[in-house]
Design goal:
Helix content: 25-40%
Pathway: Protein modification; protein lipoylation via endogenous pathway; protein N(6)-(lipoyl)lysine from octanoyl-[acyl-carrier-protein]: step 2/2
Family: Belongs to the radical SAM superfamily. Lipoyl synthase family.
Strand content: 5-15%
Radius of gyration: 19 Å
GO molecular function: lipoate synthase activity
Number of domains: 1
Shape: globular
CATH class: Alpha Beta
Low-confidence stretches: 1-11
Number of strands: 9
Main location: cytoplasm
Keywords: 4Fe-4S, Cytoplasm, Iron, Iron-sulfur, Metal-binding, S-adenosyl-L-methionine, Transferase
Mean pLDDT: 89
Structural class: alpha/beta
Order of helices and strands: HHHEEEHEHEHEHHEHEHEH
Number of helices: 11
Strand order of the largest sheet: 1-4-5-6-7-8-9
CATH topology: TIM Barrel
Distance between the termini: 48 Å
Largest sheet: 7 strands, parallel
């Protein structure tokens, strides 16, 4: 379980200072279908070494992803740019919050170097929220995309962006850099935004993805939901309809896992059969791709899923 104290710094400090005084929510024992193996093996160690040698941050580590062992063993990692400290305090998230460091302008070159060393055919780039920056970090996304394209032209690029709330022109700059997949997670149903994602706005996030399709219809769009936070099945299906109205191609649904006692509580663990039902419903609503399992995360199997997504589009266009 992730700790509330940042043990990597010389002077221990709260990892989530804004959550320190919240009442505890007991962390429930996970059911058998949630359990994963501890990360071990030569390939895992090699991936970890490349990440550390290039002084990079991954969401795999910072968010405590349960799939890190599997992904890193397969030499897949999701790079998190713009530092390891977020300006927001979402109730579900384990990434550190506080005042971020200045933008590291050498980071783009180091990520491109890591992509080459790892031989990545598909790479996922995400970031913390940077409300402190005039453009929310948009230009840094552009710089990273361009650096990867220069160093490894055959690598397809998927980005998982913040919402660029109140950052005029930021989203357009990133769209115009032409990533292969533009992902932004809605995370939960509108009713739960105030308690789970208080710094964001549901319809702004939905509109962001709609703007991607309006500006560049060739880009794939993708969004994800966590379940187990107290949402109803009907609310999830309404979000699916909203996503389809915005032209979103790819939907991911996974189980919310509570990082610490200070984070939002798990309302329930959703049974695997329910995930299968969500996948069936989503496919019937017209999504090109759906990944819905308890351990699904935004970038889980992203490379393989991208190939399936491209194939699904080609098939749809040929009909």
């Amino acid at each position: 379980m992730a700790k509330l104290i940042d043990t990597l710094s010389e002077t221990p400090r709260p990892r989530h200072p804004e959550k320190a005084h919240r009442p505890d929510n007991p962390v429930q024992r996970k059911p058998d279908w949630i359990r994963v193996r501890a990360p071990i093996g030569k390939d895992y160690s090699e991936t970890r070494k490349i990440v550390k040698d290039n002084n990079l941050v991954t969401v795999c580590e910072e968010a405590g992803c349960p799939n890190i062992g599997e992904c890193w063993t397969q030499k897949h990692a999701t790079f998190m740019i713009l530092g390891d400290t977020c300006t927001r305090a979402c109730a579900f998230c384990n990434v550190k919050t506080g005042l971020p460091a200045p933008v590291d302008h050498d980071e783009a070159a180091r990520i491109a170097d890591a992509v080459v060393k790892m031989g990545l055919e598909h790479v996922v780039i995400t970031s913390v929220d940077r409300d402190d920056l005039d453009d929310g970090g948009a230009q840094h996304f552009v710089d990273v995309i361009n650096a990867i394209r220069s160093a490894s032209p055959a690598t397809t690029i998927e980005i998982l962006t913040p919402d660029f709330l109140r950052k005029d022109g930021a989203a357009e700059a990133v769209i115009d850099a032409r990533p292969d997949v533009f992902n932004h997670n809605l995370e939960t149903v509108p009713r739960l935004y105030l308690s789970i994602r208080p710094g964001a706005r549901y319809f702004h996030s939905l509109r962001l993805l709609e703007r991607v399709k309006e500006r560049d219809p060739s880009q794939f769009t993708k969004s994800g939901l966590m379940v187990g936070l107290g949402e109803s099945k009907e609310e999830v299906m309404q979000v699916m309809d909203d996503m389809r109205s915005a032209g979103i191609d790819f939907l991911t649904i996974g189980q919310y896992l509570q990082p610490t006692r200070k984070h939002a509580a798990v309302a329930r663990f959703v049974e695997p059969e329910e995930f299968k039902a969500y996948e069936t419903i989503a496919r019937a609503k017209g999504f090109l791709m759906v990944s819905a399992t308890p351990l699904t995360r935004s970038s889980y199997h992203a490379g393989d899923d991208f190939q399936r997504l491209r194939t699904a589009r080609e098939k749809a266009l040929s009909n």
